[in-house]
Amino acid sequence: MDLLPIENLIHEIREHRVMLDFDLARMYEVETRRLKEQVRRNIERFPDDFMFQLSKIEWNEVIAKCDNLPDGIKFSPATPFAFTQEGVAMLSGVLRSTVAVATNIRIMRAFVAVRQLIFNPPVDKVNELQKEVKELKQHIEDVFTDYNDINEDTRLQLEQINLTLAEMQVQNRLSNKPRRKIGFFTEQQRENKEDVIE
Asked: Is 59 part of any domain?
């Protein structure tokens, strides 16, 4: 019997995780009647936080939740004993068999596994993946927004550079063009100018 079926036999009753006598008897390979006899003979080893008997209401709740209970147990007039982890550990000393010791080791591991599942629930891979995809999508949108902002800034800067270059070219043409002198010319200057034109 591996851990998973044992974990399925652990019930939450009175805010304790417990196993019921008939499940334990089956695992220890003894009759439920014999297990209860040994517990009653050694009742001082089983205080209320180790073992308690279910009330009729609690038993009916267990029956309603569990669909794998044998019919003979469902309709039994006596309600079962419920053993906490400590009570189960005490059973191996009461039953004194190699099967009981080996079974107790498996049961203790199952209780530990249940405790770990409660404190460290398994990660929901689908939800985790959806979360990562959502974060990635947001990151890509942010990158494209930044990219578009950069492109708009770059386009404006290039337009400004082109405008400045065009203005500089116009100024350069104007500065390289020979200027016509303004003012009065002497007779000699006028003659020189006419010589150049001819």
From this structure: yes
